Amino acid sequence: MSLYRFLAEGIFFGFIVLIVFGGLLTVRARLLMHAVLGLAVAFIGVAGLFFHLGSPFMAMMQVLIYVGAVCVMLIFGIMVGQSPSQTDQLRIKGSNALLASVTCVAGFVLLTATLIRSRWHTATEQIGDFTMQHLGTSFLHQFVLAFELISVVLLIAILGAIIIARNPEKGSAS
Amino acid sequence: MTPSDSLTIYLIVGAFLLFIGLFGMIRHRTLIGMLISVELMLAGAGVNFMAFNRFTAPDPAVGQAFTLFIMGIAAAEAAIVISLVIAVHRRFHSVDPQAIDEMHG
Options 3.60.15.10, 1.10.287.3510, 1.10.10.60, 3.30.420.40; which CATH number does B3-99 get? Predict the structure, then answer.
């Protein structure tokens, strides 16, 4: 294995460590602001995995949309919605928390065991056209209906969010 | 075969994101905390799509398009949920889901 390959594998495991650390921080954090920070760390790790899967464009989109937009929106929601001191008692405790963690660990172990035992017929080399040009052409030929529909969905979501969050008293007065 | 060329590792990471999101969804009792956990689960789905796209799909554009649509849906869902949280907070002055029980009959 060449030195560059070895370094790439090290960076790959670094991204997995980022995902695990960020995920644990997200669920264990006392303050919701720390949970959002863990979420951003986990998303950066996921973007690194996308890079290793041969798609730098998707890695960039992951950082732009998730870390850049969704996390900022979540922080906005936290700051508007509540005072930080409220968050401490709003978590399940005692036997319920234990039951939840046991269930999730058991599910993860079962799924992992199944994944390790299954045999996939995978391609060792990257096959097909991974370029951004091919992706863009597919969006405007093969997936043009889905591409248009997602824009309509986003427009309706923005309008719906504005209507739901509007103050009803002020809205009817104007 | 190097670790970053094995499909199983990516699928295990996806499973980890799914179950840590499920655990966070149970553990957090605020609406925003639940939303954060759902985002983790969606990221796990994206990792799975991209992994199968790289290792088994004949056309690599399919999985990338799927993952982009997941990102769009997740952004729309986050916007809607945050506007709901703002509306609920204005109405009930709390974001505890247990406090929103006016319609229990």
Answer: 1.10.287.3510
